[in-house]
Design goal:
This protein is mainly β. The radius of gyration is 17 Å and the shape is globular. It is about 10% helix and about 35% strand. The chain contains three helices and 13 strands; from the N terminus they run βαβββββββββββααβ. The protein has helices at about 20, 200-205, 210-220; strands spanning about 15, 60-65, 70-75, 80-90, 95-100, 105-110, 115, 125-130, 145-150, 155-165, 180, 185-190, 225.
Length: about 220
């Protein structure tokens, strides 16, 4: 499977100040109008969320990338590269694109003091999710590395990314919104083709293979100090 080549993330005109995004966000990870829109998930008794291991080894020979503030870091395979684009210093906005050994864009990471308003509605099936220990105690709820599929109007969208806590709450509600770290927000998304998998079984086979696990290891490696 081939993933998308991705140009650095362009800032949308509708971006809102971080303060507007964070204001009113409960400490227990609940939603607020500025940071998340929650929709109910149709129960699926035939499926169960499979918890991830609480840590995941980075592939042999990892290199570390640290953002210019010296606080946020992540690891990646030694033959992968990271391209950083900083369109604004004040307020800070940075986008890091992780490229594999062949030069293909694999992960897009946003880290900055401006945040998008998140909106959406879907039925979500979680394939795997697990806490990122390097971000624990720095963001509430604890960020997770998650792989799931959202279905809306008959279309399936596979997503592998950092989520602010569990991608689906224990009471069955979809959670959306950025990870909050101090005065900045963080998002990290694996880049997929428009229709990367024919069905959930194909997605699981890919995820548990070498490619999926290498990408998972990058998401699990985030740390903040």
């Amino acid at each position: 499977m081939r993933l998308l080549q991705c140009a650095p993330l362009a800032l949308a005109a509708a971006l809102l100040p971080l303060a507007a995004c964070a204001e009113g966000t409960p400490a227990n990870g609940g939603s607020s109008p500025g940071s998340a829109v929650i929709s109910t998930v149709a129960p699926d008794p035939g499926r169960a969320i499979v918890p991830a291991a609480t840590s995941s080894p980075v592939p042999p020979g990892p290199d570390a990338f640290t953002f210019p503030d010296g606080r946020l870091s992540f690891s990646h395979p030694a033959d992968w590269t990271v391209e950083l684009f900083e369109p604004s210093k004040t307020p800070y906005v940075g986008t890091a694109t992780v490229h594999d050994a062949e030069g293909s864009s694999r992960i897009n990471i946003y880290y900055g003091q401006i945040a998008d308003v998140v909106a959406g509605s879907a039925t979500r099936t979680v394939i795997e999710t697990g806490p990122v220990l390097g971000l624990r105690d720095h963001s509430v709820p604890t960020p997770h590395a998650s792989f799931f599929v959202d279905r809306s109007e008959g279309a399936a969208r596979y997503r592998m990314e950092l989520t602010a806590g569990l991608p689906v709450s224990p009471d069955g509600q979809v959670r959306e919104g950025p990870v909050l770290l101090g005065d900045r927000v963080l998002s990290a998304d694996v880049l997929f083709d428009a229709q990367p998998f024919t069905n959930d079984d194909a997605a699981k086979a890919w995820y548990w293979g070498a490619e999926g696990q290498a990408l998972k290891a990058v998401l699990m490696s985030f740390s903040y100090r």
